[in-house]
TrEMBL record:
InterPro entries: Acyl_CoA_acyltransferase (IPR016181), UCP017998 (IPR008304). It comes from the Archaea. It comes from Caldivirga maquilingensis (strain ATCC 700844 / DSM 13496 / JCM 10307 / IC-167). This is Uncharacterized conserved protein UCP017998. Pfam families: DUF1122 (PF06557).
């Protein structure tokens, strides 16, 4: 299917409000540091779900990206999958998303152990949403960079996505040769087992 980017459309949609898994979520939008940047507090039931920083991109040199942080774990577990998939619909090919995972215990432990990012709880959701390239941004001292974040990047085209998928499958196969035992390893193992049997589904063309 054709996939085009329109992050301004995402900003407008969130400002008007959406309904996700039975919850009414509305975005409180403020301008960011640059004319292409917006800060959006997503709120439901009078409480903040998370903050999104949306950068629309600037010319040919700075691509669009979305960052999610200040995440409330009470709501995140039921909203993460549909919200990430919604954002992907508005990101252009090659678009990037960063998601803070400090409050996501399973993801944090799996990444600290060095598991492939796409086998973590959050990474697997991002992979199924369309991201095919990942990087774990971990800053031990925090500071201006904020908490640890998982970066996902959409492929620029189907050829790149297929190439990335080949690497993902190889890493998943390699993970299956290891040993573990606790619940975090078992969940990652189950994801790897599923991935090696799954074909690549392109969302760009």
């Amino acid at each position: 299917m054709m996939h085009v980017g329109n992050l301004m459309g995402l900003v407008d949609l969130l400002a008007h409000g959406i309904r996700v898994n039975g919850l009414d979520v509305v975005g409180l939008v403020n301008k960011g540091r640059f004319r292409e940047e917006f800060n959006i507090d997503l709120v439901t039931c009078g409480r903040r779900v998370l903050t999104l920083k949306v950068f629309l991109g600037r010319g040919p040199y700075y691509g669009p990206w979305v960052e999610a942080f200040n995440i409330n774990p009470i709501f995140w577990a039921s909203l993460d999958d549909p919200l990430i998939k919604l954002i992907v619909k508005y990101l252009a090919p090659g678009g990037v998303m960063y998601i803070e995972y400090l409050t996501d215990e399973e993801t944090r432990i799996q990444l600290q152990r060095g598991y492939p990012p796409f086998l973590s709880r959050l990474g697997y959701i991002m992979l199924n949403a369309g991201f095919t390239w990942f990087k774990d941004w971990y800053y031990p001292e925090g500071w201006l960079e904020g908490g640890p974040k998982l970066e996902g990047q959409l492929p620029v085209n189907c050829s790149e996505g297929l190439r990335h998928w080949g690497g993902i499958r190889e890493d998943a196969l390699r993970f299956l040769t290891g040993t573990g035992g606790d619940e975090y390893w078992v969940k990652a193992f189950e994801r790897a087992s599923h991935l090696v049997k799954k074909g690549y589904e392109c969302i760009t063309q």
